Amino acid sequence: MKRIIAFNRVSADGYFSAKDGNLNWVVPDPELDRSVMASADRSAATTPGQDPGTILFGRRTYEMFESFWPRALDGSGEVRDPHSPGHASVEMRGMAIWINAAKKVVYSRTRKSVTWSNSRLLPAFDPQEIEAMKRQSGGDILVFGSGSIASLLTQYGLIDEYQLVVSPILLGDGRSLLSGMPKSLRVDLLEAKAFPSGNVLLRYGRSS
Fold this sequence. Notes:
- The chain is built from 5 helices and 10 strands.
- It is an alpha/beta fold and about 210 residues long.
- It has one domain (about 5-205): Dihydrofolate Reductase, subunit A.
- The strands form 2 sheets. Strands 6-5-2-7-1-8-10-9 form an 8-stranded mixed sheet. It has a two-stranded antiparallel sheet with strand order 3-4.
- β9 and β10 form a beta hairpin.
- α1 packs parallel to α3.
- It is globular.
- The two termini are about 15 Å apart.
């Protein structure tokens, strides 16, 4: 049984992107990147025959990833951080290898096709199809950003774990990760880990 994990960076006042959608406020943190990479088995991306996992996207986040990650691997030992072009690390290289190898499902009514490797385009969100994905064997299913998809998954009770990296930044305004929730949802704290950069990783599991 696969799990669905929603991973997002949020500001200290609760926004997952600025009002215009930019993420230039994210605080770079190689130690955090190492921790995130170590918390899940990303080695499947380079192991023949293993399923590296699946990423679910809304159109907007997919196009942000599509504009960067396919060309991130330039043959050097490091990859620059998409949130901070002045920083590069081997951890970002590991992330680039995994993201490019992972299966990618993008939900969009406006896109007509996708060309990024291992990508599949679906016109509409279907919770039963997601449940069928979860019943398959293989790597976990992740959601990065994609507030509309994260909101739908939450409404249908399909997310197993929320991983939130709280950055030491107050945006004052921006976009909330979840919207349209018909009721509040209880989650259980699994881990809280602070980093010298001021970033804090919070892991919450869906409460039983």
